[in-house]
Amino acid sequence: MLKTRNHNRTGNVAVLICFIMVPLLGLVACAVDYGYLLYMKSDLQRVGDQAALAGAMELLPEEDGTQDYDKVRQKVKEFVAHNYNGEFVVLDDDIQIGKFDPATIYSSVNIEDVSGDSFKLADVVSVSLRRDSSANSSVSLFFARLIGSDSADVSITATSILQKGRFLVPGTEILPIGLSQDAWNALGDNEELSIYGDGRLEGSDGSSLPGNFGTVNVGPNSNSTSELNNQIDNGLSENDLQALYDNGSISSPDFIDSQSQVTVQGDPGLSSGMKHSLAREEGNIKLIPIYDSFTGNGANTKANIVTWGIVQLGSSSFNGSKKTRVNVTKLNSFYGLMGANKDLSDESGNMEGVYTSPALIQ
């Protein structure tokens, strides 16, 4: 009778496990280091995104139409330093400021340097954050040191643009005093205009300007003085837009397209009932309707709004028609609650020099 020999294979399994453990531990080590690098990159991206947005906000032009690039760079650096307890360096060359090319906005994002062109305003800020030999040192690794890799470079880029305004939405700050195109075009940038109750328009040098003006009812046809005051204090309301939509003046109850003509009821002259609201809002930035015609009489007066301008509301006085006046200064930039054109590659319908909220594009 043959005996069955019992073979002990424990040693074979142990050897096999030793062979498997070496690459397995290598994979685990790589996974740990790779996960750590992903975390570091994600954190850099988070801070970079926010820094780029903060920098874009600083691109809003000053009252004289200029932009301070140093102020933009300082804001970016301060924001990054705040997130890293002041221990992170952002190189000047890693903050790019310029004007984006609409044709490349959804591809390579080409940024034009306009620092030497006084006729172009920058509208994009690109921020690169790095941990490498150039700044902040590379990221130290854990297990990869066993195979000779002590550290790895990590860098990110975040790009933010200052969107162009196009749509007036609820909350957009307006001044319901319309100006004719002739009067608006006769004003230079940052020039003050005095609007008098007797119909006169005077420039900052006291000279008479062509054109006319009148209060306009951007909303219900029978706008009361209280409604005009509400618009001066609080901007457009949902009810205003709904009324314009109901009477066929606008195509959507959600916004006014600044590049579409809007016909509204108008009233010549200035109402003394607005004086308190005008005084409260002195110094604030407003959008003002610009019309090409102001026709009719009394309750049948109609203003055909063709575009909107940006003004800073100045002082006002109500003391008889000849002394009653409202001062406004023509500006070339605006920031406020306003709808942006979502198609960044098409700028044909945007308001010139009107900016709204910044947006990340990279």
Would you write up a description of this structure?
- The protein has 362 residues and is an alpha+beta fold.
- It contains 6 helices and 17 strands.
- Strands 1, 2, 3, 6, 11, 16 and 17 form a 7-stranded antiparallel beta sheet that branches.
- β14 and β15 form a beta hairpin.
Work out the helicity level: 25-40%
Radius of gyration: 31 Å
What kind of sheet is the major sheet? 7 strands, antiparallel
Percentage of residues in strands: 25-35%
| H/E topology pattern | HHEEEEEEEHEEEHHEEHEEEEE
Distance between the termini: 81 Å
Shape: elongated
The helix/strand class is alpha+beta
Number of helices: 6
Q: What's this entry about, in short?
A:
The chain has 362 residues and is an alpha+beta fold. The chain has helices at residues 10-57, 69-83, 181-186, 225-234, 238-246, 275-280, and strands at 95-100, 111-112, 124-131, 139-140, 151-152, 154-168, 177-180, 192-196, 201-202, 213-217, 256-257, 262-267, 285-295, 302-317, 325-330, 339-340, 355-360.
Question: What attributes characterize this protein structure?
Answer:
362 residues; alpha+beta; 2 domains; 7-stranded antiparallel beta sheet; 5-stranded mixed beta barrel; 6 helices; 28% strand; elongated
